[in-house]
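Q: What structure does this chain adopt?
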Amino acid sequence: MTSQYENINVLLVGTPLAEVDEIEKELGKTIDLECHLSECPDLNVFLDNIDEQISGIDIILLDLAWADSADSENFFKMIQKSAPDMPIVVFTREEDRPLALFMLNKGASEVRSSSGKFKIKPNRLGDLIEDSWARHKNSQEKEEESAKDLKEEQALSAKDLKEERIKSAENLKEEKEKGAERLKEKDRIISWLSGGYSLERLSD
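A:
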């Protein structure tokens, strides 16, 4: 279970929600997170100041139920480009299944249908936030673990490569020494066959 002392900042984008303060209080009763909810009703204003808007934000709730599919795709891609690692829960029209699949394929944390004006109960909203946050943290932990494993593998590979190079250098040195000894032996044999020997050398 998530620690009750963990803070999470949630931004609702794309629709006005007059009861933000009240919903924030209700969220505190339904989930094991200290949740702070803010909003930016105008999506164009949000996109014009996106870096400032998402500063300190942990999860984005993006309401696109009012927009057409082409605009929705562009909006989502622009937001994800600025916040590639942030969980984004998207709300689309009930009948727009292709758009929902597009969002999921492009990395949306979750896609829910919403008919008409955005309305959501605090307990349902709390479940969405908590589930998305848990998946996000789990994904981050897996990525960190994979990066750690890769780093360890690279370190082992570098060590193995170094040992292999040392071994190859030692083998090469040994082969050179053996080659030099063979050449000396060959010279002695040639010298002996050509008469360049003595009883003293034969007795050696």
